[in-house]
Amino acid sequence: MKVVIQRVKSAKVEVDHTIVGEIGAGMLILHGVETGDTDEDLQYILKKSLNLRIFDDEAGVMNESLLQQDKEILCVSQFTLLADTRKGNRPSYIRAERPERSEPMYHEFCRLLADNLGKPIQKGIFGADMQITLVNDGPVTIVIDSRNR
User: Fold this and answer.
1) What's the pLDDT band for 84 if we cut at 50, 70, 90?
2) CA angle 45, 46, 51 (to 5 degrees)
3) What are phi and psi of 142, to 5 degrees?
């Protein structure tokens, strides 16, 4: 499982010119499921995402997690995170899990994020053609891969 986490001042996701998810300050999580990912991978990514110390403390040092601040999450499924670009110029997505397995894992990840955060999170629509607009804060962009622990 792989995620790209961006600390944002704001972010939104649109499908067919309609906003389906929008947040203020917080975290945009782009979420990809790799073939063979298990609940162990999901739990690892969940724990890392929620506890990642990328928010400024009172001294202006990135020393606090999302759980320590009143921030929001927008989570968007993105199978292209699993692109293999080693051969040629056309990415291969053979490592991306099939939708019948990856969609339930994405929804479970989102449910667990909300449960741990203690409030609903915003989401994209799985499998949809989505447009994401964001203001990256910092910029701070982190990649976490459960296969590279």
Assistant:
1) very high
2) 100
3) -125, 140
Instruction: Decide if 9 contacts 24 (C-beta within 8 A).
Output: yes
Beta-strand pair 26-32/72-77: parallel
- Residue 2 token pair: 């792989």
Q: What is the pLDDT of residues 113-134, one digit of tens each?
A: 999 999 999 999 999 999 999 9
pTM of this structure: 0.96
Contact (CB, 8 A) for 81 and 131: no
DSSP helix/strand/coil, 51: helix
The catalytic site residues sit at: 78-80
pLDDT band at residue 149 using 50, 70 and 90 as cut-offs: confident
Angle of helix 39-51 relative to helix 99-117, nearest 10 degrees?
Answer: 40
Q: How far apart are the first and last CA of the chain?
A: 11
| 5: CB partners within 8 A, 6+ apart | 27, 28, 29, 30, 49, 52, 54, 141, 142, 143, 144
The vertex-15 CA angle with 36 and 99, nearest 5°, equals 20
Considering only CA atoms, give the Rg of the chain.
Answer: 15
Q: Strand 122-123 relative to strand 130-145: parallel, antiparallel, unpaired? A: unpaired
Residue given tokens 């790209």 in the structure block = 4
